[in-house]
Design goal:
Shape of chain A: elongated
CATH class of chain A: Mainly Alpha
Largest interface: A-B, 45 and 46 residues
Number of strands of chain A: 0
Order of helices and strands of chain A: HHHHHHHHH
Oligomer: homodimer
Number of helices of chain A: 9
CATH architecture of chain A: Orthogonal Bundle
């Protein structure tokens, strides 16, 4: 991806995190990214194209900042725990990403354009968590009785819900992290 | 509450569920409720007052439609399970309420006005679920080792997350209900 495109997508995420998807005007984005509106239309076609690429950018960026220090091969359980906990961090890229992701999800309730793409991104995340739980079962750090796909879908849903409660001021970040750690213990009992 | 006020609040919930909080214009609400804009301002003061009363209305209505058939005294565990599962139903009042609740939560990320009220409503819901889990522990249908306040906060957060995934088309209603039932089993083990 060209640097200019990346700069525009970073700026789009910031604008959405500040004012919401429905507050995003191409003129404001152009000012934020310090480019012309013509360049935005040149790269993304129309507002819908821009939204699609922004959702893709947000999903890819989340994969990078949630990259745990534990390798998935050596300790899949710790890798999963770190990956999910890294979604609840008070650092600008994560806060921006989480607000923008929540906004795109809630906008999709009203505007169906991004529905399929959002479902696919969600599904990829759930699939990755499912694979890690299965690997942890093989490695003997998660009990055999756990239904990996169910636990993965619940844990990722819980991360979204905790993130929304934190960002909307209904719970603190520390409490959200503590609750997620408790969920990992309840959903992923040790063998035996 | 006067019938006219209730009609306006029902209409406000419908409009929010259809177009979002940010799509709510007092003129459109007046048309939907078949009253004058002056009457809306007379009853609610300003847009902020209307939003506060609408959030209150939504919270109270949720208490009614999630009223389980099992009495909390006779079977607190089943009462809790029914209460949470009743949040995931494809009936107009629940869908409207869930969309409006999700919208108010996500709007609060950007606009702090309803933050305290939303936190209080959330807290009341969590408290009620906590009490039910404690009663179930006393009745011997939930294990002593469960931390009631944590399980309650997680289960209600999960309901919000599942509701958002369902309403945004990332999961089906049946799957959301199945996942919630699994969470109840994982979070609330029987006494061992």
């Amino acid at each position: 991806m060209s640097d200019r495109r990346t700069l525009i997508l970073q700026a789009a995420t910031r604008v959405i995190a500040r004012r919401g998807v429905r507050g995003l005007r191409v003129e404001e984005l152009a000012a934020e990214a310090e480019v012309s509106t013509a360049l935005i239309y040149y790269h993304f076609g129309d507002r819908a194209g821009l939204m699609r690429r922004t959702l893709e950018f947000i999903s890819e960026r989340a994969e990078r900042y949630t990259e745990p220090s534990a390798a998935p091969q050596s300790d899949p359980r710790v890798h999963l725990e770190q990956m999910l906990l890294l979604e609840l961090q008070d650092v600008p890229a994560v806060v921006e990403n989480s607000i923008a992701w929540g906004e795109l999800r809630s906008t999709t309730v009203f505007e169906p354009e991004l529905r399929d793409q959002l479902r696919d991104s969600t599904y990829e995340w759930v699939e990755y968590a499912t694979d890690l739980i299965r690997q942890a079962q093989e490695a003997g750090t998660v009990g055999e009785e756990v239904i990996a796909a169910d636990a993965a879908e619940r844990l990722t849903t819980l991360v979204e819900g905790l993130s929304e409660r934190w960002l909307s001021g209904s719970t603190s970040l520390n409490r959200a992290r503590e609750l997620l750690q408790g969920a990992l213990a309840a959903e992923l009992p040790l063998p035996g």
